[in-house]
Amino acid sequence: MSERDFRPSRAVWLVARREFVQRVRTRAFVVGTLAVLAVIAAYVLFIRFIANEQGTDTLATTPDMVAVAEAVRASADALDQDTVELRTVPDAAAGEALVRDGDADVLLTVRDGAPALVGKDDVQEQLRALVDSVLQQQALDQRLARAGEDPAEVRAEVADTRAAVTTLEQRDPRRTQRLVLGLAIAALLYGSLVFVGQVVAQGVVEEKSSRVVELLLSTVRPWQLLLGKVIGLGAVGLLQMLILAGVGLGVAGGFGLLDVGGLAAGALAMGLLWYLLGVLLYAVVYAAAGSLVSRQEEIQSVLTPLTMSIVIAFVVSVNLLISDPESRLVSTLSLLPPFAPILMPARFALGVAPAWEVGLAIGLALLAIAVLTWLAGRIYSTAVLRTGARVGLRDALRRT
Questions:
Q1: What pLDDT does 55 receive?
Q2: Report field, pTM of the whole predicted structure over 0.85
Q3: How far from the centroid of its chain's Cα atoms is residue 120's Cα?
Q4: Three-state secondary structure call for residue 113
């Protein structure tokens, strides 16, 4: 059957279906997906464990300081700080043993007639400030009592003596969850784009080295083969990303680490959109790069610059999102095609990306896709049939 027997859309569809079915049925896809799922589950459990450990301070106390310790725990609860767990010990020696073994963070006791905090190698500043505040309040109450004043009445009189606090903007109560979700989407997109790009390039080299591409090009045109390969393998990456995102959200929601309501749904929809744009943006370039070589041993030499561009975009995006997601630098970078597939959906999840910026970024990405697809198609159609030595980029462009 010759290429004229195929409509262009059907030719692209057949190539895409072939790539998708072959890749999804492989053991590597199944094992790889299960391995990543296991890593995600382990990571969520680890984060939960760390959060629980960091959110609780164990305060050992001798009997003569129990009242102070109870007041410290009440103050921590009132100020919404880390939970203070109390452990009463018979004497200072027993408390020091707990601290030395790591079973208690700090010992509250009396030394030389004065309150004392004993830590293993340090005492947390937050816990020290709580204890100091309680001790100062108790000392003030004693002075007021000796002066004939009722400490409770004095505290009631001065309770409203404080600075009025106003804010120019309302604080988003879910800002932390938005940041976590944004970073997770950025990481997921980064991994998916690298995966699809590598698989596309490897597939091109395999077909070229085995001469399968010559048979395929006798039936379909080069651009149809290139586009079908990108769509088919992009669908594989999309399937894997949906599985990972679904499991990740389920685990995070089940452990109470993330509210998976409308916030997550909108962010994921934006992430899927940018995944499709990112695949079209990067995968065609990966395919063109893969067509320049004929052996798997040479593939990294042409893919390293492309992979590094995604790595740099991801690292820069994560650091900027954590430091200041609303800065002008972040806004500008999120509009540019190399950064947009990772940075823009993360900013959208954070709620700091205006609609006009999202639209402009999509428009610039589509423009870049059109240019890169045209350029990559020309390189691919020339280099994919040339075996042997590596084809230079300048040579591939000059011969088109």
A1: 55
A2: no
A3: 35
A4: coil
